[in-house]
Amino acid sequence: MARDPRRDIRALLLGPTLELATAVDARLREVGLPALRAAPAQILTLIEPGGLRLSELVALLGVAKQTLGDLVDDLERERLVERYPDPDHGVIKRVRLAARGRQWAAEVKKAADGVERAWVARLGKARAKQLRAALEALAVAE
Q: Could you tell me the strand order of the sheet in which 93-97 lies?
């Protein structure tokens, strides 16, 4: 009997990624918030409570400063982020979540938590804990 070929890691990650994205988009539509493309959503996900300098976001995302500036402009027009003066430097601006951005982030978290609970139900607590530990290790690995 022929053995099934090993599936590509991208194919294995695609299903769970789509399940999560679908749940998040549905939740955002439910509450009247925009379901964003991947890059703007990633920006909102990366912004820390104290905000970040644009240069820090450029380094995190690995995109051109102009591209990031345009994306932040779009998010600012949607009232999801706001720019404010960096307290350590008079000229440099930082970006933080605006009130609507904080609401967006909270709704994304609710949806993601719901998907994670469903995965725990499907996988069992032990395997779900292993999955989370593996993903956390990959997130900090360089």
A: 52-53, 93-97, 81-85
